[in-house]
Amino acid sequence: MARFVQPVPAPADPYTGDPLLRSWLDRQLGPAGHAAAEGRLTDLAADVSGPLRAAHADAEAHPPTLVRYDPWGARIDRVDTSAGWQAQRAAAARHAVVALPYLDSARGEWGAAARVVQHALLHLYGAESATFSCPVAMADGAAALLSRPEVDRSVRDAWLPRLTATDPDVAVTSGQWMTEAQGGSDLSRSDTVARPAGDGSWRLTGEKWFCSAVDSAMAVALARPEGAGPGSRVLAPFLVPRYAADSPLADGGDPTGCAPGVRVHRLKDKLGTRALPTAEVGLREAYALPLGDPAQPGLVRAMTLVVVTRLHNAAAAVSGMRRGLAYARAYADARQVAGGRLVDSPLHKATLGTLGVDTAGAFVLAGHAFALFGRVEVGADPDAAAELRVVAPLAKLATGRLAVACASEYVEAFGGAGYVEDTGVPRLLRDAQVLPIWEGTTNVLALDVLRAVTREDAARPLLRRLAAAADTARSLSPALAHTLTAVTEELRDTFVTITADPGGVEAVAGARAVALRAAYALAAALLVEHAAWGDEAADVAARLWARRWLRHEEIALDAHQHLDLLC
Ligand SMILES: Cc1cc2nc3c(=O)[nH]c(=O)nc-3n(C[C@H](O)[C@H](O)[C@H](O)COP(=O)(O)OP(=O)(O)OC[C@H]3O[C@@H](n4cnc5c(N)ncnc54)[C@H](O)[C@@H]3O)c2cc1C
């Protein structure tokens, strides 16, 4: 008897096969703006479906290694990465996934919405980048920080063009050295000390516990300026050149070696993100340049970077969700069960359709955060800034959790094959699990949301958007409008209660539930806005999302009926 071999069709093109992405771009950019982006998006999608998919597999199969000594015993701390990782690096530069919002041509074409186009690029790129999306995120964060007016011009001029280069031979990425063994979430416990060298440069000494993309040319490190006192607010961001070529302290020698005072102790053996070199790094009087005046509390400056990386985290989460769904759909189209195609099973249809609803809600959260960020950068728009203050942590925390839950479903959607390494499917789950951890765990972000709404008046723009969407929803569906109105009032009451005693046990213990409720309400509102603009899939997704996440109802029957619209 002939051996059965499962044929699996390729998933749809990630750009042309993603109607929500396309209609979102139509709405956010206008038809002409979207047309202007089409060439970039088509090129990247073609690359992702071809050479980058292969590069991704290669990078996963050949994780980075640390070579600590040369043959003669000299300490070199060289991190070797695969050809696939290098191909991802080159593609990220070539497709301007970091650079786009910094290019004059892009700002001229799309203005604030250059960040919308960048989000579309990240949406296409992230899922099969072997997590090169991580150094991309940190490079963008570093570029945004370097763009701040407080940063010394000579430092900006030396590094910003490299971070935002589109020539792979020139482009560099950045690490971000914040977490120490005694504190990641709690940065107030940071021990790394910065000492002025007297010539404008500083020297950093300390131990950094999680340093991803340690092969990058630079890192933004947090350190406590000598004499600055305790706490986290006084921590200041410094730019640390990673390689001898960029360190004035290097005395000849190999320019590709470590900068003097920088040591890579070991690479982490991680659950996922296996292609990404994440290291423990020691600093001993390492050369560093201040990013802003270290005498001024610096954590607020470093938050520029953190907001950007949180947005990227949301983009990566949604990118993985959308690609996982495309793969699961392709498999269901091909697989036979119970005498028919798997995709024709009402139950499997409902399973995939529900994932489509979750993906749509997550997409608009990430998309909205990028759109707001563009308005803050370009127009210094105070309304956008106030809203972004709460949208950034909400988008990051909700999409991170959804990405893990959905990845688990995608693995299951492949049956046993989903558990087998060389199908590439298990990686979806492994790589998703980092998303709710780094750049703020769910609890840490929930506390950030609590701070934002109780101390920084961020509740106002959020409630305004929810109330407006409730109004808009009246013409779409009375039930949806009713749900949104009720949840808006409920959140308004909750915010009043927790503002009365923000440090009280009730507010703190309940912070995660409140943040998730606010994030789910926001996603419903954003889907309503997109539906009201005329997107049919958003209309369905808005109703089903609100029933699933705000009313906790079962949506299987409707999700099954609308599968083709939802994925
Ligand atoms: C793959 C990977 C890559 C990473 N890359 C980098 C990097 O490049 N640079 C970098 O600086 N860091 C990096 N990190 C570190 C990451 O940012 C931290 O691990 C994260 O911020 C959590 O900090 P922690 O490990 O100290 O955990 P902890 O802060 O000890 O958290 C432990 C638990 O306590 C909870 N918790 C913490 N504080 C509170 C609180 N106040 N109230 C309630 N609950 C709380 C958390 O939610 C968590 O569940 C990386 C981590 C991973 C896994």
Quick recap:
The chain has 567 residues and is of the alpha+beta class. The protein is built from 19 helices and 11 strands.
Describe the structure.
With 567 residues, the chain is α+β, with helices and mostly antiparallel strands. The protein has helices at 19-49, 51-61, 83-94, 104-110, 114-125, 133-146, 153-163, 299-334, 346-379, 382-413, 426-432, 442-455, 459-473, 478-500, 505-509, 511-533, 536-550, 556-561, 563-566; strands spanning 65-69, 75-80, 174-177, 193-196, 202-212, 218-225, 236-241, 262-267, 278-290, 336-337, 340-341. A 5-stranded mixed β-barrel has the order 4-5-9-7-6. A two-stranded antiparallel ribbon has the order 1-2. A hairpin with a 5-residue loop joins strand 1 (65-69) and strand 2. Helix 1 (19-49) crosses helix 9, helix 5 runs antiparallel to helix 9 and helix 13 crosses helix 16 (511-533). The structure holds flavin-adenine dinucleotide. Flavin-adenine dinucleotide binds next to strand 3, strand 5 and helix 12.
Spell the H/E element sequence.
HHEEHHHHHEEEEEEEHEEHHHHHHHHHHH
The number of helical runs is: 19
The helix fraction, in percent, is 55-70%
Compute the average pLDDT. 96
Q: Enumerate the strands of the largest sheet in spatial order, edge to edge or round the barrel.
A: 4-5-9-7-6
- First-residue to last-residue Cα separation: 37 Å
What summary fits the major beta sheet?
Answer: 5 strands, mixed, barrel
